[in-house]
Every structure is written in C-alpha cells, then in structure tokens.
Design goal:
The strands form four sheets. Strands 1, 2, 3 and 6 form a four-stranded antiparallel sheet that branches. A four-stranded antiparallel sheet has the order 5-4-7-8, with no helix packed on it. Among the domains are: 42-148, Immunoglobulin-like; 156-282, Immunoglobulin-like, CATH 2.60.40.10. The model is unreliable at 278-319 (pLDDT under 50). Helix content is 17%, strand content 46%. Strand 10 (169-177) and strand 11 (180-191) form a beta hairpin. The longest helix is centred in the N-terminal third of the chain and has 23 residues, at 2-24. By secondary structure, the chain is an alpha+beta fold.
C-alpha cells in the first residue's frame, strides 16, 4: 500500500509540475508537429521606376515607386525609406519614409514617394526596406541631367523648324543706304501640338561677330499657328556694311523663353563665319555702330572746329622741300 501511495503521489506531483510549466512556459505542451512561432515572409525590392513630376525653375519633383515582392507568412511593421543623394557631394538632398504596414501572401506591392530636389546635376535614389526596424533589402538607381527638364511655364508645342529644306532663321539682303545695309529676317516656326497656338513673339538680335556688339534688335509678333502647321514671322533690321553678324532668334511666350535658333550674315568680303564659330581675327571699329544721332553730332563738332592746315594739305611737304633747296642755293651763291 505504501508503494502504491508513493506512486500515486509522484504522479500527482508530475501532473502539477506539468500544469505549472504549461502556465509559465508558453508552448511547453505544444503540438509535436508545431515548429514554434511563425517566421515572417521574405521581402525583396523588384524594381524602382522613377518619373518626373512637377518641374519648376529651381526644383524637380521625382515620382519614385518601389515595387516590393513578398511571399510566405505575413510580414508586419514594414516601412520604406526613400532618399536622394547628390552625385557630386554625396550629401543627402532629401528623404521620405513611407509606412507600408503588414504584407500578406505572395504578391507585389507598390510603395510611392515624391522627392523634390534641385533641378541640376544628378542624384542617387536609394530605397531601403525595413521590417520591425531591421533592414531587409536595399536598391539604388541614378538620375542625371535634371537641368534638361522643362518647367511647366516654359512648355510649348511650338519650336523653330529645322529641316534639310527649311532653315529656322533665314537672312536676305534688303535695301542699302550709304554705309548701311538692310537685312530681311525670317523665322520658321512649327506647331507640333494638337491645337492652334498664339500669344507668341520672336526677338531678332543682330550681333557683330568679332565683338558681340548689338548692331540692331527687333521683336515681331507671331500669329496663330494651326496644329501640325509651319508658319513664318518676318522682320527687318539695318546694320553697318562690311561686317559679319550672328543673327539670334528667341521665341517668347508671355515673357518666357521657349526656344532659340541662330543664323549668320556674312557681309565682309574677306572673312566668313558660320553659326558654329565664335571668334575671327578681323578689324573692328566701334564707331561704326554708333547711332545716327551720335554720328551726326560728331560730324558737327568736327566741322565747327578751326582748321590750321592749308586748304590743299597734300602740297605742304613739297613746298617745304622747295623752300629749303632755294635757301641752300642762295647761301652758296653769296659765299662765292
């Protein structure tokens, strides 16, 4: 009896210990097939598409989208860090954290962010994925040439036409008057949009090639240009002859620079330039580019001055030589 009572007491103690262990240690009585707490699924960055967003004169907004691939058990507390790093200085220009939450199942999830950076140079766009504060994956892409993005206020479907048969800016010789030459300028513009456009103007600036002195400037309004059509705008300027000129044409819309083109006018018979050249060694006289009033004032001042030369200045030297010879002959005859 004593042995039986001892066995029963031990069994009771074992049951009690088991119950206490089950209460204190979770999973102590777990199913033998149970592998413990569920492990979270995997997360990978499949790709990071980047597209331009709002563009201003100083900044560019980049629309970044990280596509996360997830599989397996649910992954909780997932966040994505986006940051733009300057390619030259390696300094962080801007960053943004996007809360994702819980990812479930085998699926791909897009996570988006907008990064606004200075509109110049290039950047490394870094994407870092965290789960419960721990980094699980990372991806990086690079963008460059942001200065080439056009601000919204400068966008236009109209630009200078340029084909093998049609030059964007053409120059023709017009009238001539004394040392002045008239130039007839024409710019060809093409509307590549789907609607007609107006409120445009073109400024023609004629610069003397060697000095960049502006010889003349004129602005002409552009009429309506229908969709898909090419139209021309004409203007005339007057410049001094015997010089070479660059003709710059700038297209404006509401005081915003839209497009530009260049041509040349070779009026110097001994020198020629092209639109690709910037320097040529030839003589230049700034006085040739004075206004008509300045030239007239100079002539009046010169004419009002008192002249101390002979009316026929070409004979002054000859008369002096003859007088010297006569004096020598006279002195020689007296010495005899």
């Amino acid at each position: 009896m004593k042995l039986e009572k001892a066995v029963v007491a031990v069994a009771i103690v074992l049951v009690m210990v088991t119950l206490v262990a089950a209460a204190v240690v979770p999973g102590a009585l777990a199913d033998p097939d149970d592998n413990g707490p569920l492990r979270p699924g995997y997360i990978e960055v499949e790709e990071v598409p980047i597209a331009p967003g709002d563009i201003t004169g100083e900044t560019a907004t980049l629309a970044v989208e990280a596509r996360l691939s997830h599989g397996g058990n649910p992954s909780e507390n997932v966040t994505v860090l986006f940051r733009a790093i300057d390619s030259e200085s390696n300094l962080i220009e801007t960053d943004q954290i996007s809360e994702v939450g819980t990812l479930k199942g085998d699926r791909e999830t897009p996570v988006r962010a907008n990064l606004t950076v200075t509109r110049e140079g290039g950047y490394g766009i870094e994407t870092v994925v965290f789960r419960n504060g721990q980094r699980v994956d990372r991806a990086e892409r690079r963008v460059s040439g942001l200065e080439a993005l056009t601000p919204a206020y400068a966008e236009s479907n109209v630009e200078f036409a340029e084909t093998t048969a049609l030059q964007p800016v053409s120059v023709a010789i017009g009238s001539t008057n004394d040392d002045q030459v008239g130039l007839d300028l024409s710019a060809a513009l093409t509307n590549e949009g789907d609607e007609s456009t107006s409120d445009l103007e073109v400024t023609f600036t004629v610069r003397q090639a060697e000095s960049n002195v502006v010889a003349d400037r004129v602005t002409a309004d552009v009429g309506d240009i229908r969709a898909g059509r090419t139209s021309t705008v004409d203007a005339a300027v007057t410049v001094p002859e015997d010089y070479n000129y660059y003709v710059d044409a700038v297209l404006w819309r509401d005081d915003v620079h839209v497009d530009s083109a260049q041509s040349v006018a070779n009026l110097d018979p001994t020198e020629r330039i092209s639109a690709d050249e910037t320097e040529t060694d030839v003589a230049f006289e700034a006085s040739d580019f004075e206004s008509e009033s300045e030239r007239d004032d100079g002539r009046a001042e010169y004419d009002s001055g008192e002249s101390t030369a002979e009316e026929t200045p070409g004979f002054g030297v000859a008369i002096g030589v003859v007088a010297l010879l006569a004096t020598a002959l006279f002195a020689r005859r007296r010495s005899k």
